[in-house]
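step 4 of 6: structure.
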Amino acid sequence: MNRQPSIPTLEDVAQAAGVSTATVSRCLNEKEKVSKSTLSKVMEAVENLGYTPNFNARAMAARRSNTIGAIIPTMENAIFARGIQAFQVALHEKGYNLLVSSNVYRPELETELIKSLVSRGADGLLLIGHSRDSETYQYLERRGIPSVLAWSMQPGQTHTCVGFDNRASMHPLADKVIELGHRHIGVISGIVEGNDRAQSRLEAIKDSMTAHGLTVDPDMIIQTFYDLDNGSIAFEQLMQKVPTPTAVMCGNDVLAAGAIAKAREMGIKVPEDVSITGFDDIELAKHVYPALTTVHVPHREMGRRAADLLVDLIEDRGSASIIQLDTEVVMRDSLSPPKT
Amino acid sequence: MNRQPSIPTLEDVAQAAGVSTATVSRCLNEKEKVSKSTLSKVMEAVENLGYTPNFNARAMAARRSNTIGAIIPTMENAIFARGIQAFQVALHEKGYNLLVSSNVYRPELETELIKSLVSRGADGLLLIGHSRDSETYQYLERRGIPSVLAWSMQPGQTHTCVGFDNRASMHPLADKVIELGHRHIGVISGIVEGNDRAQSRLEAIKDSMTAHGLTVDPDMIIQTFYDLDNGSIAFEQLMQKVPTPTAVMCGNDVLAAGAIAKAREMGIKVPEDVSITGFDDIELAKHVYPALTTVHVPHREMGRRAADLLVDLIEDRGSASIIQLDTEVVMRDSLSPPKT
DNA sequence: TTGTAGGCGTTATCAG
DNA sequence: CTGATAACGCCTACAA
């Protein structure tokens, strides 16, 4: 009695099957190098004992883990869900597992998370955006850990990446807003520091405004964390400015959804009294009322391509590539010309 | 040249500091057992070399990983976000890391994920709900891996858990709906199979109806996956039934949000033409229009308590406990008496 | 306080 | 096709 819970090991299986551990290992990893008879014998033992290989031991001995890590800014809203999901499905097909962590939008934490993932034996990493100090890249390079950057893509950068030009993507939408006649434009941006996506999107809006001869009033730009409540709060603040904006452009759909909710609460009609735009085209975008005019990003494709790139890198096929994806403004109902 | 990227090991550090690997190990794990002078010497070497301990090796040698795993049905919407977030923060304070996987609402996958987490050396597991075959529990028990169940709690169950009684929680809301005068009630439920939370919530509604002398028409109950689109689709189907429901109760807030969106699209006023209710009280609930009447679940506390329980179990303090949390109906605007 | 040495569960190299 | 056996990087008695 009191038999301690014994976890079966390779050795146990070997014994039960009357072969060496090496053979069992082969049965598990390179079936083709084993005779049919011993294979079935071994597999039976595996079944009976309920054997599950010890991942840590395996990773250590094989010097690879078939695991890749991803660090995303947040899991709290759906912004990254679709892309990561596609990423993980694609990885699965290639025989890799995915480990995701989130840095809760605190870029300082990323380095720590990277180290953690690496120390866990990640064969490769998916990182979001470009903003991080070069030490981090060096760290990865020293250890020979390939990584691909996603969700962003900056002219002139050289690291393997798959993404879209956030600036170029926001541009057409901003142009549209202005061409519709809006002259007083409020902006609810994500926190720009350490976030090149947020920064690029904001810059695109500013650029567009100046290009059209509008002056950008810093007071009409609010930076805040990506979440519904903050979208609401920022919107309320913006609507108190003078002159009141006739359009509010948001750094993403979540912020925009928060803004729309607050508008209704304040009795402000969208888009009659004020237009609101988003970015990302997450599922929520077409479910809010009025449906959100936003920029569609091919998240799924991005995830798939990222997986391809990363695995190629890991398995020594292909080298640094840069894949730029196209985005598209999708006009729905939250944007219209300003009331005259 | 072509110096292969050499990852520093304990041994490297030991050499650089002029001590044994054992001492370095102590400096990293039990500082108090080392003299100040050697400690600083060692730490310096660690810095210089940029040493990061190899997690796999450590887990293997120490026979523990300080890692706990969680398996949630989905990361695609915010249902589990708050609770898991709190869980992870609490764990962090106790010196544990969290690994989360999601089974995308396919209960069959859970077993596989559990094995994966276990083979990765998880010291303990957080599982959602009770529905799983006993083999799984046996598997965990054999290996001495403690687990706590959350998000649910069924009378008479014995496994350590922290949660709320889904049935008892939905009951008051259903009663409320009926007492308001609704006689034709549609239900958009989550898929019941392999999901005790969805099942309990649905049963609560049925119970309440029969208790009030209403007959439950199976045709007025739709089961579907938790997501916005499905909520919309199901709502549309429901509104085509005869007699038309005057209230639609949803298995969670996401479904309800989808229903609300569709209602507007169809020109149906909520709550004037039809009332809609949710469950969970996620952030979205108060941002939709009309704000959702739902059941508030103390997600954060649940996460915290789960962490306490699990770590106690792992560290051999305390034994199986059952913590029941209270939920609360929160009346907002999406529920009103039926039009007479 | 510090060092020595054995072992954790697998994989991989080399003979047989 | 199969079996020894040496790593893999670290922890932990046990000794000194």
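step 5 of 6: annotate
 - The first strand of chain A starts at residue 67 and ends at 72.
 - Residues 19-23, 26, 33-35, 38, 57, 59-63 of chain A lie near DNA strand D (CB under 10 Å from a C1').
step 6 of 6: archive
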